[in-house]
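> run fold Carbonic anhydrase
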Amino acid sequence: MSTQLTELFDSNREWARRTEQREPGFFSKLLEQQTPQYLWIGCADSRVPANELVDLLPGELFVHRNVANVVAHSDLNALSVIQFAVEGLKVQHIIVVGHSSCGGVRAALNDLRLGLVDNWIRHVKDVRCKHEALLDRVAPEQRLDALCELNVLEQARNVCDTTVVQDAWARGQAVVVHGWVYGLHNGLLEDLRITAATAEQVAPAYRAALDGIINRYNAA
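> ok
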C-alpha cells in the first residue's frame, strides 16, 4: 500500500471507465438527480456494503452508517440525515439494518473495553439490559446474533419515535419504517417484521417482531 494511496485512485479511474463504458452518460445523468425511495441506516462495518446488498445504483439508496446501527435521540447527525431524507428527498422507506456477528454488539454483550467508542456502545448495552431475561434464556453461542436482532428492533422503534417521522405521519406523508438483519455467513437479508407506516402501528409491530425473536430463539 502506497503512502499516497495511488492504488485507490487507479481503481477509481478503472471503475469510472468501466461504468461509463457499460452505460454511456451514467455520470452526467447521476449529476442531475438524487431521488432515492429508501434511507438505509446501517452499521459502519466494511463487510456490509449497502448498495451492493440490494443491487441498487448510486442515487437509488440514501445511506447513514455508524457503529452498531444506532439511532440515538440525541444524535444530531442521524436525526439530520433522517430529516433530510424524509422532508427533502421524500423517501418512502427507512430501513434499519443490523448484521450478524456485529463487533459493536459483541462489545456490548461481553463488556469489552475498546476506548472512546464504549460511550457510543452504551446505547447497545441499554438494549442488552432491557432484554436481559430473554438473552439469559438463549444459548450462549446464539446470544450475539439475538442481541443484534434486538438492537435492530430498538433502533427501528427509535426511528419511529423521532419528531421527524412522527410529524411526517401526522401530516399524512407516506413513510414506512422497517427493521432487517443481514447474515454475514450467507449474504442474505432477513425482515424482522417490525414494519410501521403510522404511529398507531408502532407498538403492535414492535411486539410482534419481539415475539418472533423470542419464539425463534426459544425453539433453537
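The two ends are 45 Å apart (CA to CA).
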